[in-house]
Target: DUF6541 family protein
Amino acid sequence: MDLLAGTLLAAIATIAVLALPGLPLALALRMRGLALCAVLPVLSLAVIALSAEVGHELRADWSLLVPLALGILLAGVVLGARELHRRRAGPRPRHLVAAGRPALPLLPTGREGLRAALAPAAGLLLGGGSLLVLQLRRMGSVDAVSQTFDNVFHLSAVRHVMRLHDASVGVVGGMTRLPGESGYYPALWHQAASLVAQLSGQDVALASNVLMLAAGCLVWPLGMMALVGSATSGGRAAVGLAGALAGISGAFPLELMSWGLLLPYLLSIALLPTLLLGAAHLLALSPAARRPDPAQLAAILIASLLAVTLAHPQGSLAAIVLGLPMALVAVGMRVRSLRRGDADAPAGLAATAGLALLALAAGLVGWSIARPSRGASSWDRTARPGEAVRQVLSLAPNSSQAFLPLALILLVAVLAVALRSRSRWLLAPWLVAAGADVLIRSLPEGDLRYLLTGPFYSDNHRVSALTVVLAVPLLAVGLEAIGRALRDRAAARGAPASVLTAIGALGVLVAPLVLAVSWASPATGQAERGAFPQWQGRQLLSPDERALLAEVPGIVPPDAVVATNPWNGSSLVYALADREVTSLYMSEEVPRSTKLLHDRLDEARHDPRVCDAMHEEGVEYALDFGPEELWDRRDTMSGMTDLSSSGVGVIVAQEGDAKLLRLLPCRGTDGSMRS
Model:
């Protein structure tokens, strides 16, 4: 099957995985329009995460049928609860039924709905399309293998789920532990990617890449548009701008689609706008006419909190970092209402203050419990304070050059939101995110930096993404407010229709112009040049080595074990060719017999103990990818290099310097020959 057909199948499977498990629940909640499109991936991923654990307990083989069944069951529960509530409440008067608020009304229906959908559709096409083009240019090919440390784990974990037919977090967490042991690892990414690979029948790398592109180029812009359209005072133009400007910064999602490779964190932050949307409604920061009904709000909050947290726990910490200032703004609004003498102000103030205290307590607990070790949080600063401020205002990725024109556009939008918008609450979380971004870029390594940024590994890339989460809606709402002010002022002065039309036409060009400014930024070029080796380099897997892995299924029997070294990429034969290996990942815990093979496999013909270990582990083949390894390391597993000249095996396939060997019989400690 050619690459185009395979990519199309993977794309169809990705849409199915992101839509079908949550669709029954969304329909039961009567969601529609843009809200349905934005919330559907969140609902589906939450159902997938829950069904993985349910399936594990029921010992059901992992497939899309498991989350589909749970999604239908949850929809039935919602419909039953709605019917029970309707019967208890009795029939509503006709005038109340007619005046009832529609379910999450982000877009009108009928012809008006079609016209209203043009701006979001254009925004999604521009924003998502530009992100897709930029990322594919970095990757070189949609089926490329990221040449990064973490990608070895992520691809192997997807295959691990498929081989064991079990997607539980304990199964994924136990992959790199000793046999029989389990552990926790946020597995939502691997659960979803395994379903895409299984449903499409495509290579694990291709399936994972297509899901990554969907998360960054589809789920993220949709979440931005829903946040602006539902939780702010922005109109249709702001909704379209939010989608179009979703790719304005290389800091997110592009940076996390290359650096790391931080796929679980990428997914978590791509889902974060929906959680912020729910928080804005819960805190009554959103316009009253746009608020969902209680059942919808509960579903949005629960599903988005589950999905964000189970994709990566740092996503929930990010939600607290951004949600706490939102809660404080809401408390201030309730205090103002209390001073005005509003009847419901005391109850509202008590509820909002309680939510603020809850967020603060959760943040303090999370900050202490979820903080990695000091050694794992050792990323040093990358800029001095002044330069860090300029970088953050210009939305520049880590260690890249600030760009004044983009910073000025953002500051103008911020000023417009402050002076001309009813969504000033956006400013508080943005200021907190921007402040954290400045600190993590500029603070020297030490106790203070670890205290403030340790839960994010003191990693600039992770925190920089949070600034973009608020900068996009600020730009969308602010730029629309400026356009509306210009149009209103011109109309008030009796400007002819042609002038008003020209202002409207200029508004249509705002998003492409702002994107053009961001692409002209030196930071964009620097980030792109930095991303090329992460996708198109050879430090992990060269083209010859990738080609040899493609030949393995036709040579190595399905039940055979291959001796591999994860540092030189040979262990990817597990993910890409579905063959068992001696070591999956660089930091994997392995038994003593496996460690002996890694250190002395080349001595199997002369050392009976190595021969015994080879027999005990069932190793029949070995991949020799040479001494060069990731991060410029060499010979990490000294017994795995130059095997062909050691006489322990014969070459059965070779591409360039990459060799696949079948190991020869050897004599064990008991004197017998072992095959």
In short: The chain has two domains: 3-89+122-533, 543-674. The CA atoms of residues 193 and 385 lie 40 Å apart. Residues 460-492 form the longest helix (33 residues). The two ends are 37 Å apart (CA to CA).
